[in-house]
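In response to a reviewer's request, we include the raw inputs and outputs for one of the modeled complexes. The two entities were modeled together in a single run.
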Amino acid sequence: MALMTGEQYIESLRKLNTKVYMFGQKIDNWVDHPIIRPSINCLKMTYDLAQDPEHEDLMTATSNLTGAKVNRFSHLHQSTDDLKKKVKMQRLLGQKTASCFQRCVGMDAFNAMFSTTYEMDKTHGTSYHERFKKYLTYIQDKDIVVDGAMTDPKGDRGKAQGAQADPDLFVRIVSKNDEGIVVRGAKAHQTGSINSHEHLIMPTQAVSEDDKQYAVAFAVPSDAEGLFMIYGRQSCDTRKLEKDADVDLGNKRFGGQEALVVFDDVFVPWDRVFMCEEADFSGMLVERFAGYHRQSYGGCKVGVGDVIIGAAALAADYNGAAKASHVKDKLIEMTHLNETLYCCGIACSTEGYPTDAGNYQIDLLLANVCKQNITRFPYEIIRLAEDIAGGLMVTMPSQADFRSDLKVPTKSDMTVGQWANKFFVGVDGVPTENRMRVLRFIENVALGTAAVGYRTESMHGAGSPQAQRIMIARQGNIAAKKELAKAIAGIKD
Amino acid sequence: MLVGFKFCGGCNPVYDRRAAYEKIRSDVCVRAAERGVEVSFEPVREGVRYDALLVICGCANRCASLTAYDPEAPRVYVYGEGGVSDAGLRLAALV
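The model returned the following structure tokens for the whole complex.
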């Protein structure tokens, strides 16, 4: 099957019977819901750009499974060049949407699952790898979106899976038979889950042999019986419900999405089960997925950062402050921070290596350094954008006020809109609305709906800062560094 | 004469690649027409022989993948606004 167009993707979602709840209601037409649709538009962009000659070099690849042209989001990386192109593709999509475009989790899950199942089969004599190859061939052929889902609700962080008061706080196998398994539990913070055709589930952390029912990986359609989602709300989300909402949204067309995905005794046939109680490989799967996903942030957040830097520069232009030396210096600092993140994404890709299964893995240390920087630099970038923008980004009147024809009964006999436009004009020749638009964009990323993706997701997505520090400690090669110091200092043991 | 063109993925282009392509195509067609030669441009495809390949890259990294395309065809790269005119001249000389 050929690559889907963006419109075909939208229509394919309408055919799903995905169960979605939001604000305590069941949402039947979630595809056109004004709060959800911007996130769908982001995924549509992953299809649109794959059809565009100006971008297909990044957006598509040749499948090693079939030889067909596939969307890079369903590709198994075959070289360090593929790893680098993944990062570049993510930067591109960040630029085009200024949002989380949600399709990376599937790509990262495919690559982690491919290599882990191969090694699991070698140890346990299982046949997960061939099953997974068939599954991925189906995904590539249909060109559909898969939510790679890892994070469980986790309950009491001080207790292991099986020690929780409620055993469902981690996804687990509740029964097995000749046909398959039945699973129960939930995945939290699931990026793009509602916009995905399928879910590919992995354990959230290493599992001990005593808790092996939690060592489970499988795929299900998003509208499987017993599976439903509860939409995660975002700061300022109900602005999207306002009449003629546009300027006040900051980014009308695009946005991110997270949801709680619940599995209330969902049946999974064996041909879609890729790990079943092999607790000794749960850690490998988690580590590899996390590594790929920490690489991803060196692309996607950089692309959003590009837009933020551009917006800050525009705000300076419109404010008449572009020539101030401190403004120029802040733009330099923002660029420096953003490109440092990109360096990390490219570095961990360039230092990648082939797995036993043949696909390429990123350098784990550098990927964790990448994500560790992501937990910090975007905050500084958006802080500097707020600095340049000025306080008006959070104090200006609404779009309705700027467009109001309501007369204010004072001497000047002007409308609310005329007053607002009179006093919020910037430099000559720039419409006040343009100034409002760029300030609202910065507001949206700093503390509106897009702050979910640019700020808190940068902190906690793909693992919170401490998770990277643990990996950096493991990979840091301190023993060898001690030997270096001894040699230079003339220390003989 | 047939020219295949290929863009890089465009993750951080330093100039307008589409505009550069349009200018090069226009320049080449005019120059070729002066010699009575007709030139067609198409997005490069696997398995097709070309008289030349035009590769429009967003930056000097020039990361566009070309391994799948006509290995015999001479390649003309452009990767910055300053190189557009020169690329047009070099491509015109090839066709």
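As requested, we also summarize the result in words. Strands of chain B lie at 2-7, 40-43, 52-56, 75-78. The interface with chain A takes residues 5-12, 17-18, 43, 63-65, 68 of chain B (CB under 8 Å).
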